Amino acid sequence: MSSPLAPPGQPRRWRPAPLVGGAATVHAGALAALLAAPASWPWAAGGVVASHLALTAAGLWPRSALLGHNWTTLPDTAGACVAITIDDGPSPEVTPRVLDLLDRHQARATFFCIGERAREHPGIVREIVARGHAVENHSQRHRHHFSLLGPRAMRREIEAAQDTLGDITGTRPLFFRAPAGLRNPFLEPVLCGLGLHLASWTRRGFDTRTGDAALVARRLLDGFAPRDILLLHDGHTARDASGAPVILAALDTVLHAAGARSLATVTLREAIA
């Protein structure tokens, strides 16, 4: 996806996506209809309900761009590169092992860290950056009801993580990923004000639910191509039958596949530079 927007890190003017603008028009039309003809309320209410359902459906689809700009692939200029993104950490047990694995493959990754976890393990976050990877914003607390928050609460949650991660690493995040990828129409205006870009993924392995690393890898590699953004987890990762975090074997398989296809791994920051 080529971005016509200001580069991440720069606040930008919010322009409603067509779906959001359409919903606002429906609401205004419904109000006008009620004022002109109160008996038309069933039709007006039906239109409002339909618009809300459309907005909700768009928010429940993590890869949707219906609510605003959303990185689901790297930009065209990325060429023969892919991005490995790793969510929900840092984990004192798993993240160091992931970093060692990335080192063995001479690969780089983007870690979407939770602010509270980063505050508990700042040394691991600094180690992520020291080894050449990027740390981005995955909210301060990773609340499951994040997509139900209003604009003020959403901004507080995201801005708190910006401050936490910026203080630890010395560099403020440029990208944001919503908890579970779920959001509502309030998110895009908040991200615009903070200079953040929303990033989701091309495909995910569902490695928080699946204890079979081979299956996780197959999901990630199904259609594997240049400019893919792949999603794995160092926090909340599932375990295989021996108790090992599935991200380790799955990521190893993915990195071998990338090497065999001469695909370089880059951070999201590098991809848009």
* Fold-level CATH name of the largest domain: TIM Barrel
- Give the low-confidence spans: none
Q: Give the termini separation.
A: 15 Å
CATH architect. name of the largest domain: Alpha-Beta Barrel
Q: Could you estimate the helical fraction of the residues in percent?
A: 40-55%
Strand content: 5-15%
Report the major sheet. Answer: 6 strands, parallel
Count of DSSP H/I helices: 10
The CATH homology group name of the largest domain: Glycoside hydrolase/deacetylase
The mean pLDDT is: 90
Whole-number total of structural domains = 2
* Class from secondary-structure proportions: alpha/beta
Count all strands and give the number.
8
CATH class of the largest domain: Alpha Beta
Q: What is the approximate shape?
A: globular
Give the C-alpha Rg: 20 Å
- H/E element sequence: HHEHEHHEHEHEEHEHEH
Explain what this protein looks like in three dimensions.
The protein has 2 domains: about 20-60; about 75-270, TIM Barrel (Alpha-Beta Barrel). Helices cover about 45% and strands about 10% of the residues. It is built from 10 helices and 8 strands. The protein has helices at about 20-35, 40-60, 95-105, 115-120, 120-130, 150-170, 185-195, 215-220, 245-260, 270, and strands at about 80-90, 110-115, 135, 175, 195-200, 205, 230-235, 265. The model has no long low-confidence stretch (mean pLDDT about 90).
Q: What is the secondary structure topology, with strand pairs?
A:
Blueprint: H1 18-36, H2 41-59, E1 81-89, H3 95-104, E2 109-113, H4 115-120, H5 122-130, E3 134-137, H6 151-169, E4 175-176, H7 187-194, E5 197-198, E6 203-204, H8 213-221, E7 229-233, H9 246-260, E8 264-265, H10 268-272
Parallel strand pairs: 1-2, 1-7, 1-8, 2-3, 4-5, 6-7
